[in-house]
Amino acid sequence: MSDMRLIVAGAGGRMGRALVRAIAETEGAVLVGALEAPGSERIGEDAGVLAGLPANCVKLSADLWTMSAEADGILDFTAPAATIANVAIAAQRGIVHIIGTTGLSASDNAVIQSVTKRAVVVQSGNMSLGVNLLAALVKQVAKSLDETFDIEILEMHHKAKVDAPSGTALMLGQAAAAGRGISLDDHSVRGRDGLTGARNTGDIGFASLRGGTAAGDHSVIFAGPSERLVLSHHAEDRMLFAHGALKAALWAKGKPPGYYSMADVLGLKDLFK
């Protein structure tokens, strides 16, 4: 089988560079395009050199339409506006779209869902095996423990991250809410400050920490009468997410149009029932 020809969106950023390195390390994948925002000072630079590799002659460009003509998929860990712009082109070209972008709104996600009748989309707040297993465990524990156990989600990321709570924290919150049979939107509490009053039974709380170079730490705390259960995951290197995205892309090649998650890719779907 021929190599999967991939584009990296946001190739000049931290995650984009990690994706370029992951492609270079992955058998069956080849980089054919490096997308960057219009006006970026990185346009025209070599994607390999930027990623700390030998030159690969793939220059950063803002022209997704042209570079996607010879591509099989796009790896997209950018910003909501950029991802939504990329969705339309990826769907028109019929290429696999791997979406790890966080901070997407409900309307953004509706746009993504709208193309899945004719395009393959794999979307996840986190591409690692460990986090997806954690989400399955969180759902099961939330289902097993009653509302005398309060649920709190704590996350920490590097100081350059621009959205909070993280996409992974929200993914874990959704898992907890699903286990409880409730809507996260109706029970989410964020950023407590001042005289907030007592905690409401059934709420799912979020706390976000930012600093240093933390790749991603997440803990889900089930705090009950006289005891606490804490489920945690600690990411030590963003290459973890890059290799997960590559696994998703290779898995998705040749799949029928539809909306998929990392639970599909990792064979964990039954754990989320």
List the main descriptive attributes of the protein structure presented here:
5-stranded mixed beta sheet, 7-stranded parallel beta sheet, 10 helices, single chain, globular, 273 residues, alpha/beta
Alpha-beta content class: alpha/beta
* Number of DSSP strand runs: 12
- Quaternary: single chain
- Structural Rg: 19 Å
- Tell me the helix content: 25-40%
Q: Which H/E pattern describes the elements? A: EHEHEHEHEHEHEHHEEEEHEH
Arithmetic mean of pLDDT? 94
Write up what this structure looks like.
Helix content is 35%, strand content 24%. It is an alpha/beta fold and 273 residues long. The strands form 2 sheets. It has a 7-stranded parallel β-sheet, sandwiched between helices. It has a 5-stranded mixed β-sheet with strand order 8-9-7-10-11. Helix 1 links the parallel strand 1 (4-9) and strand 2 (29-35). The chain starts with a strand and ends in an 8-residue tail after the last helix.
Provide a compact summary of the structure:
With 273 residues, the protein is an alpha/beta fold. It contains 10 helices and 12 strands.
Detail the topology: elements first, then pairings.
Blueprint: E1 4-9, H1 14-25, E2 29-35, H2 47-50, E3 60-61, H3 64-67, E4 73-76, H4 80-93, E5 96-99, H5 106-114, E6 120-123, H6 129-144, E7 150-157, H7 167-180, H8 184-187, E8 188-190, E9 204-210, E10 216-224, E11 227-235, H9 239-252, E12 258-260, H10 262-265
Helix pairs in contact: 1-9, 6-7
